[in-house]
Design a protein that fits this description.
heterodimer, A: 780 residues, mainly alpha, 32 helices, 73% helix, B: 120 residues, Helix Hairpins, 4 helices, 68% helix
Chain lengths: 780, 120
Amino acid sequence: MIVALLGLHVVVGAATLAFSRRLGRLGLVLGAVPMVAVVAWLLSAAGGVLDGRPVVGTLEWVPSLGLSLDVRVDAFTFLMLLIVSGTGTLVVAYAWSYFGRGPEAGRVAGLLTMFAGAMVGVVVADNLLFLYVCWELTSITSYLLIGIDDQKAEARAAATHALVVTAMGGLVMLAGLILLGQQAGTYSLSGLLSSPPSGTVTSVALVLILVGAFTKSAQYPFHSWLPGAMVAPTPISAYLHSAAMVKAGVYLVARLAPAFADTGMWRPLVVSVGLTTMIAGGLRAFRPFDLKQILAFGTISQLGFMMVLLGIGRPETTAAGCALLLAHALFKAALFMVVGVVDHQIHSRDIRELPQLGSGWTSIKVAAVVGAASMAAVPPLAGFISKEMAYGSLVDGTGGDRLVLVGIVVGSILTAAYSIRVAVALVGPAAVRTEEPAPLVAPSPAVAFVAPPVLLTAATVVLGTVPLVWSGLIDSASGALNQWSPTHGPHVHLALWHGVGPALVLSIVTLAMGSTVFALRRPFARWQAALAPRTTGAEVYDGVVARVLSGAGRITAVVQSGSLPVYVAVILATAAAAPTVALVTGGWWSGWPDAYGRIGQLPVAALMVVAAVAATLATRRFVAAVLLGTVGYGMAIFFVIQGAPDLALTQFSVETLSVVVFLLVLRKLPDRFEKPAPAMGQPLRIVVSLAAGAFVVVMALAASGARTAAPVSQEMVEQAYPKGYGHNIVNVILVDIRGIDTLGEITVLATAAIGIAALARSSAKPRRSGVEHHRREVGG
Amino acid sequence: MTLVMVLVAGVLSSCGTYLLLGRQLSRVVIGIGMLGHAVNILLVLSGGDGGRPPFDGDDPAGFADPLPHAFVLTSIVISFGVISFLLALAYRSWQVTGNDEVEDDVEDRRVATHGQGGAE
């Protein structure tokens, strides 16, 4: 069933994309179908899944690679699916009004559906490789979504930035997943969690996987792609950066934490990165004036918070993390939508120039205030419940927990402060405004436009005031994560009032301090401007990209030198060095061969060596050609000595012919060799040459002792006359046994002859070539 | 195999490689010729220490191995084809440019000098 739902996303997404022009915004209706179907399926399956009976399914894909579409929906996946598909449905409804009759609605719908399908795949996958495939599909679809406005260079750059960072993290993660799978002997996620491997390899694998999760969930120092991605239309930001894409990393960490939190670097790494992200993101949220940018850094900060809670891997913090996941999706999506409505109507989201929103905007203002309040953890809202759970889960712990708690409180104070900033900017902008706004002439938004954020806000209020509604869901979800851990932990009960305790005190302190920070925003801003690092993450990314490109340019300049001799030297040096090393380090030595065989070899050898060295050193073309001929005649004598008269005859005639051809050409060329600029240094040239010679000697010596079987030619000798009717066995081999090869050889010679004729007969001066002609035209 | 001919093959390969790494096409041709000779020596040696010419009717026990001979025969002829073609190229190069120099690829040199500053 789930596999079918996945398929539905793909089919509907592809169809919507294919007909996006014709469908227009009707595509949004079509695109919502799979998301609604998932929600409907969730409701029908809720009873069993939440009672701890996961729904599983499988579809073989590439069995030989251990790759199958294993799916498994337990209560935590249920929670994720609710967020992904529930928010997705509302986002699509919101997009209906946002895009109106604009041309991009159809494309956005198709891509959103594809993206939602990939996201559903990530959370239902029970196979590490399947999960990875879906993971990268979310990267690719989000690339297309962020860059939807492909006429804008800014959008294209932001989309590339997101893709480069998340896909690179994904590749690192793939290495980790494979290491982990090999270590565990299974690629099944549930199998892995039920009997987790350990050891050094596992620790390394986990760090690699965490890098993937950090890039995806925009953790420091990989966060810089997320603020840039805000160039996308707001519905896309609301979906990708509140509910879906960025939660994939958090999801994976949550899945693995109960089994692996104690292994290697996991806990210190996740907690330190998460806390850094939470605090740095919170600080950074004060600086931009663009509401979407503020929300973007707020999202980064909240993702750090979730990373910490779900990464610690203990039942209490995990439960708090689950609650935060849902609460964050509700308030962040609502806030993005609110900002989108304001931007759409007023064409500005700069808090320095927003006008006072009047009548007709009440619902938007309420949604803004409630969303921001939930983000700041004001009771009685969903955000408050999750944050108090987080405080409660860490208050009773060890010294390390206390330290984490301090970090979270600091992060939450900042969260409260920038939440107030967002709310004030939308409700009472005079307090944060620095410029006189244009009078508000824009119409208030239509009911359909406002409905999705209002629905999300209503959910925030309901979950906050009646915690019983989601208590069971969070309990089951965190229970599913801790399914295999030895300590299941107590059941979770969500409540608004936990009595007067440290958690409540901390909540009050957080809100009070947050308000103070906001009240002192002007000195705070000055202080921050003085202390904050001058370099932003985006600039670091740009710098890295520029370095990589210039480095690639430099490497190309070296590797692709354009000099034929250099290429040949590299090839020959490799061809000489690699086999020689392999031979010498292996058991190659089988003793010295005879010094010489037939006595005639000695004078021939002396003749050939002298002629070859002389030909190499010759400064006159004619001399070199004749000396090469001498080597060739030496070869012929050698053939005679070895008992190969056919070869000797051929060598004599070919060598004579070669010398003739040489002389024909040398008649034209100057007598002495010129001295063009050498392609490489003389020592290098000599070293490569000697290496090639050494390789030949070593290879021949190794081969001399390597024969183990009788020569195949024995049978050829026996059959030459009876079958081939030839007394000359070499001839029989050439024209009979290897007849086809000889035909090929003749073909090669014929081709060479045609080429030679063409080269020799063409006119003396070449016609101007096409390339040169073109260059002249463009003046290059 | 005999040590002395193995060493001859080694010397021919070194000389051939040295010539191959030069810039004058006519020297490259000579280098290729030498490399061909070196390989042919190895092929013949792989058939053992030689013997009487392999003609049917004699006692097969004293024959040189005929199979390497067949290979070498092919190799000699192909080497001749290659050398002739390269000489024709050298001739053509002289016709066009006035010498037989193997020049660097202009386009690649341009990439090398301009590419240092990063993407274009």
